[in-house]
Amino acid sequence: MRLVALGRLVPKAEGLLRTTLRSAVVSRAQELHRHRKRLDGFGKDAPRGDAKTLGACRELLKDEDWFARKTAVDTLKQVAGRGEENHLALLYKHLEDEDIFVREAAVDAVAEVAEPEDVVAVSKVSLRLADEDCFVRARAVVALGRLGHKGDARTLALLEDMFEDGFVPVRKRALEAVEALAPVSESLLNRLRVVAREDADRGVREAAKETLSRLG
Q1: What CA–CA distance (Å, rounded) separates 113 from 57?
Q2: CA distances (Å), 213 to each of 184, 189, 192, 204, 208, in order?
Q3: Which SUPFAM superfamilies match (predicted)?
Q4: Lowest mean per-residue pLDDT among 36-50, 97-111, 192-206
Q5: Which of 15, 94, 143, 167 could form a disulfide with 106 if both were Cys (CB 3.0 to 4.6 A apart)?
Q6: What does each C-alpha distance from 207 to 156, 182, 195 come to in angstroms?
Q7: What are the structural domains of the chain?
Q8: Measured distance CA(166)–CA(135) in Å, rounded
Q9: Which of the four pLDDT bands, split at 50, 70 and 90, describes residue 63?
């Protein structure tokens, strides 16, 4: 009798456990939805340098939800003062965020907040050229084209290496960034000729030809 009773209880217990777990998942999803809903319009009308909004951003950057962290990064991009080192330090940290969307946003934000030719910003963004995500790499290339010092050999070498990237938009953006920063030289023109002739993508080849026509 006891074995029969136990046999009846086990399925009931399993059913109760499944129901509890299902309820927990639904509850978590609802909580996350409400959390994100509260972020609608966050910092939208805040003036640049607004202390209250910037303080809220610092707290949001600690959030476990990637959407909240990205919202904070996007807001810092709009509200942080140009060249403000404390806010740049926060953004540098999230260049290495575990979430690709946060990293993408952080690269864009650094490009907006840092002063042109900021050595630290250029160094931090350069590390994202090796990011596992192709869109992060593409954004890093664009950011370096904006922030880099014209004629800087190290930055240009890194950008020229991106001519070999496996993602077409990265290679196209690299052409644009190199054009923005590089002094015209026969070495550069030869490298561009190789891209124009040998790149696997027609669009990249055409972009390289257009770059050559403007430079040469």
Answers
A1: 15
A2: 12, 10, 11, 14, 9
A3: ARM repeat
A4: 36-50
A5: 94
A6: 18, 16, 9
A7: 115-216 (1.25.10.10)
A8: 12
A9: very high
**Closest residue by Cα to residue 135 from 165, 92, 90:** 165
* C-alpha span between 98 and 4 (Å, rounded): 51
46: amino acid identity, one letter: A
Q: Which residue has the tokens 């006891």?
A: 2
Using the predicted structure, report yes or no on whether residue 103 has a pLDDT greater than 80.
Answer: yes
129 contacts 141 by C-beta, under 8 angstroms: yes
Phi, psi of 193 (to 5 degrees): -65, -40
| C-alpha to C-alpha distance for 177 and 40, rounded to whole angstroms | 34
Contact 137, 168 (CB under 8 A): no
Q: How many CA atoms lie within 13 A of 137 on its CB side?
A: 21
Q: CA-CA distance, 90 to 76, in Å (whole number)?
A: 9
**Tokens of residue 68, six digits:** 């909240």
Compute the residue count for the chain: 216
